[in-house]
Design brief:
The protein has helices at about 1-25, 55-65, 75-85, 100, 145-150, 165-170, 185-190, 220-235, 235-245, and strands at about 25-35, 35, 40-45, 50, 65-75, 90, 105, 110-115, 115-120, 135-140, 155-160, 180, 195-200, 205-210, 210-215. The chain is of the alpha/beta class and about 250 residues long. α2 packs across α8. Mean pLDDT is about 90; it is low at about 15-20.
Length: about 250
């Protein structure tokens, strides 16, 4: 009888360990990001790892919610198409929340407020903001809010790029007249090239970044929003802004 009870006890312990192990197993989440958008997401040239504000934020959320993140580096236009088709579970890539995008994907609560700004060459004297872009060739990354805003400007010619860095390179080389992009990104390029670039006219849109999620996955949305709220309450957004955006 004692031996039987011992076997039962051992069996119960093993079952409980299996149950606990299963309960603690992290949920794997495939997250798309376009790592060409410093300081929010970019590839560290030395380590080849994807780093940035967005990466740190999502990893902190994942830790809160028991998620195992796999980042997939993909261009911004296929990123949007992929999340709309649920090829990825989620996407974080300085994605502006818009009504049009909401038709194809879910969005987390906003986590960062940004806006579009015009960058020109340092010696430019005829472009003082977006109202002077008629008749000009303006660069923007394909599929971004910046590209959408340029398309609204009558007389402006939009030139799109897969990598926003190439747009700024063309601008410095005199091949285009201006670049329209999110202000934190633009300030980063201006800060690194103060003798060649300047921002003009101030921010002319009001936008919020959100984490995009496959439209079928409301459970993941709830987890991400819960984790986002937790890290916001701990002051993480301010910490990341100091880490990644200070001096931009």
């Amino acid at each position: 009888m004692k031996r039987f009870l011992l076997y039962v006890l051992v069996g119960l312990i093993l079952v409980s360990l299996v149950v606990v192990g299963c309960a603690q197993k992290p949920v794997k989440v495939r997250v798309a990001t376009d790592a060409t958008w410093p300081p929010f997401e970019y590839v560290n040239e030395q380590t080849k790892a994807i780093e940035g504000f967005d990466i740190d934020l999502l990893e902190a959320i994942a830790e809160k919610e028991g998620l195992e993140i796999e980042f997939i580096n993909v261009g911004f236009d296929p990123l949007l198409a992929g999340i709309a088709q649920c090829q990825y579970d989620a996407a974080i890539s300085s994605i502006t929340i818009t009504e049009e995008r909401k038709k194809e994907m879910l969005f987390s609560d906003p986590y960062f407020e940004a806006g579009q700004i015009v960058t020109v060459r340092k010696d430019n004297k005829d472009i003082a903001g977006k109202d002077n872009l008629a008749g000009k060739v303006v660069g923007a990354q394909i599929g971004t809010t910046g590209a959408m805003e340029v398309e609204k400007i009558s007389g402006a010619t939009l030139k799109t790029y897969d990598d926003i860095g190439l747009a700024y390179q063309d601008l410095m080389n005199g091949q285009i007249d201006a670049v329209v992009a999110d202000n934190p990104l633009a300030m980063g390029y201006v800060g690194k090239n103060p003798d060649k670039l300047k921002a003009v006219g101030g921010v002319f849109t009001e936008e919020n970044y959100g984490i995009a999620i496959c439209k079928n996955n409301t459970e993941l949305l709830a987890k991400i929003n819960r984790g986002l709220k937790a890290v916001k309450n701990e002051g993480l957004i301010e910490t990341l802004a100091q880490k990644w955006l200070a001096g931009q």
